[in-house]
Amino acid sequence: MSPQPLDSVKGFAVTFRQLFKKPITQQYPEYKRPVYPRFRGRHRLHRHENGLEKCVGCSLCAAACPADCIRVVAEENTPDNRVSPGERYARIYEINMSRCIFCGYCELACPFDAITLGNEYEISEYSRDDLIYTKDMLLAEPIKKVPVADRDLYDTPIPYYQDHS
Amino acid sequence: MAIAPERPKIYEGTRIPAPIPSVLEVREDLRSSDDVLTVNFGPNHPSTHGVLRLVVDLHGEDVVGLAAVVGYLHTGFEKSMEQKSWWKAITYAPRIDYLSFQANELVFVLAVEKLLAIEVPSRATWMRMLLSELNRIHSHLVWLGTAALELGAISMFWYCFRERDRILDLFELVAGFRMHTRYFQVGGLAEDVPAGFWDECAKFVEVMPKAVDEYEALVDRNEIWLERTQGIGLLSADDAIALGQSGPVLRGSGIDWDLRRAEPYLAYDQVDFRVPVYDEGDVYARYRVRMEEMRESVKIVEQAMRRMPGGPWIADDRKVVLPPREELHTSMESLIHHFKIVTEGFRVPEGEVYVTVESPRGELGCYVVSDGGPKPWRVKFRAPSFVALEATATCMRDALVADMIAIVGSLDTVMGEVDR
After folding, report:
1. Which of B76, B139, B239, B363 is most buried (most C-beta within 10 Å)?
2. How many angstroms separate the CA of residue B345 from the nearest CA in chain A?
3. Which candidate from B173, B192, B223 shows the least CB-CB separation from A36?
């Protein structure tokens, strides 16, 4: 079948129709598209309500990490210096964000829900050293907030452990 | 210029066809005439789809010699996977072919499951099929957008990436990551499908056929597109078989072979779809095959959505699958299993398997050897891109240098998968 003269014009009709459609471009730094709640972004370390850290320094996240980007050094809790409810706490907790592949295995591995992957994706830095996140950075609230889509609809119902921990 | 003029026909006598050289040699009389110019095409040329280097011998505008040089994107994934436990190796698999990530993940997970002889719940099987088909559309969209862009159709690129983003949004919704999802775990899926997925997926299924109509209106009968693709990069059926081609390249050469139908895996034997085959064996035929595959994939997604079974999404095997999170706080046994799987990894019985799936690029195989330990002893991927690249020289017969772009594009090679 040889090309007909009108066939080439059909393509122009498609592009012309776009004039009357709303653009799909998003003006990124001004507008931030809400991410879905399951989106895996920057890590967070969590505290209990009484201020103690959930992390007990078991290094299970470091063992689960396929990229070997987590470093945990644990130390014993003493009565004067109680950091976590368990016997031990993480004296050093570092994540090398330039190695991390955001697979979320640390989140799956942690038996105490101490580490989770948040929704923040704006984590670029000017220097590689800044990409090594220390424990204080991971415990702090992230500065840049990202809107998240409806949690009830786009995530599974809240499981038992989140209500009861 | 004939590449292999004296070659016995396939299907007669021996079942193994005579090999076809994957390098195009310059004819002696041309070589001595001093008119041949050798040019490096790539490895940093945008239309090589990555870092492919082609050493091209040009006589005027004719391509008279060609050799593909690969290895610029060698990442050692297979070897890295052998250093990690089976569970961790799942995260490596999708990164091999970054456009059909879900197919790579699927084939590795299927191989491990075959070694373990583990029963996968039907919800997981159907969901895997749905996501694999979404991934096929995604891969074909990227191919169509970039291949058309290289031939001058820039609006195709925007339109294809518009729909591609919708697919990546769906992956983000269900798996938490737009690419490299690690959503397929040994035994099933990592998490259940969220409630909001079905509505979003239904919207996409509604939009996608109309979008394919738009693409076809733009290029299907467009005179420039036809001139650039019809009769270019001819690959006969015999040559395609002798070169071990698979996927759209093989079906564009008139061979009716699709692993989804020939050796059904997942639930492909329960859904209704057609395998498009075109006889021409040129760039246009490969383009047509991929366009129709997109339509068929939408149909499969629609059927999978409609017939998605309920029930568990991961097998209940405590030796292999991570125990449910809520049990970690109540059951000591579960906690021990959890620690065991995370730190040491589960053990896979001794043996070797070869599992194939139909990836967007063709037959993607995974050969896994286990010595009974917590790590794979050997992982080998049969990459369809690498095999497709071997056909470059055969397709380049009597080609002009401008056709080279169309031909390399039509083979749809992903260099990450070629070099692994």
Report:
1. B139
2. 9
3. B173
